[in-house]
Design goal:
Elements lengths: L5 E6 L2 E6 L10 H16 L5 E6 L4 E3 L12 H20 L5 E5 L2 E3 L1 H8 L2 E5 L3 E3 L13 H9 L1 H10 L3 E2 H7 L4 E3 L1 H16 L3 H13 L7 H12 L3 H11 L8
Parallel strand pairs: 2-3, 3-5, 4-6, 5-7, 6-8, 7-10
Antiparallel strand pairs: 1-2, 8-9
Helix pairs in contact: 1-2, 2-3, 3-4, 4-5, 8-9
């Protein structure tokens, strides 16, 4: 599968997806969003891929925002559809992906860029990373899930401060607030993500997919997350991975998951 705006590299169960628009600071346009959807859909269907890392090309930006030139003259109807479609095919899609996604934030993650990072299952930032949701400075609000995911991660007060002030925060502030899990040097960023990925890959992909579903249920309106956990826990007993995992434990050996 060939792409114009992204790169996909696979090795030993790991896929690295790189947004490759350095002249635009990797800004998200319609084409890039569609390419990312296709890439993540294909990788999620690939039984050999256990973890996906998403990052940006270069050392300046993860994703510096959305490509404003594409929607600066949109109507109310067009703007509504822009947000709805974007959330559906990329941001919600990544959040609910059964394959774990780690965001390696290698620079500016602003607007749609931070929203993309927040859609990943967790985040690691380089020391040079800067994060923010500056949309109100343009007379608009975050439209790709930013008003929902940011409060879930940092709390309502901090989220509203970031959104209303349109300010950027440093990588260390993001770590203190719970927005990112780790802060490392630029040189250590991908190796750290790969090390985390290797730990994840030792475990049952079937169980991990079930855990993602259960955790996400807690943040879904009208869904009782505890009931989803019970359901997914019960289903685990019918999987080959459960049989292998418990047998390996009793036999005091490492499991060999499918």
């Amino acid at each position: 599968m060939k792409f114009e705006n992204i790169l996909v590299d696979k090795k030993e169960g790991l896929a690295v997806v790189t947004i490759n628009r350095p002249s635009k600071l990797n800004a998200l346009n319609k084409s890039t969003i569609e390419e990312l959807h296709k890439a993540f859909k294909a990788l999620d269907s690939d039984k050999f891929i256990k973890v996906i890392i998403i990052t940006g090309s270069g050392e300046k930006a993860f994703v510096a925002g959305a490509d404003i030139s594409e929607f600066s003259d949109f109507s109310v109807i067009e703007g509504t559809e822009l947000a709805r479609k974007g959330q559906e095919i990329l941001f919600d899609f990544i959040q609910n992906l059964s394959t774990p996604v780690i965001a390696a934030i290698n620079g500016f993650a602003l607007g749609g860029g931070l929203e993309l990072a927040m859609a990943a299952h967790f985040r690691v930032a380089g020391t040079n990373a800067k994060m923010g949701l500056p949309e109100v400075s343009l007379g608009v609000i975050p439209g790709y899930g930013g008003t929902q995911r940011l409060p879930q991660l940092v709390g309502k007060g901090k989220a509203l401060e970031m959104i209303m002030s349109a300010s950027m925060i440093s990588a260390e502030e993001a770590k203190d607030w719970g927005l990112v899990n780790y802060v490392v040097t630029q040189e250590e960023l991908l190796p750290t993500c790969e090390k985390l990925a290797s730990k994840i890959m030792r475990n049952s992909s079937v169980a991990i997919a079930a855990a993602i579903k259960a955790v996400n249920a807690n943040f879904t309106d009208g869904i009782n997350g505890y009931n989803i956990e019970i359901e997914q826990f019960g289903k685990s007993f019918g999987t080959n991975d459960f049989k292998e995992g418990t047998t390996a434990f009793l036999e005091k050996r490492k499991p060999n998951f499918e």
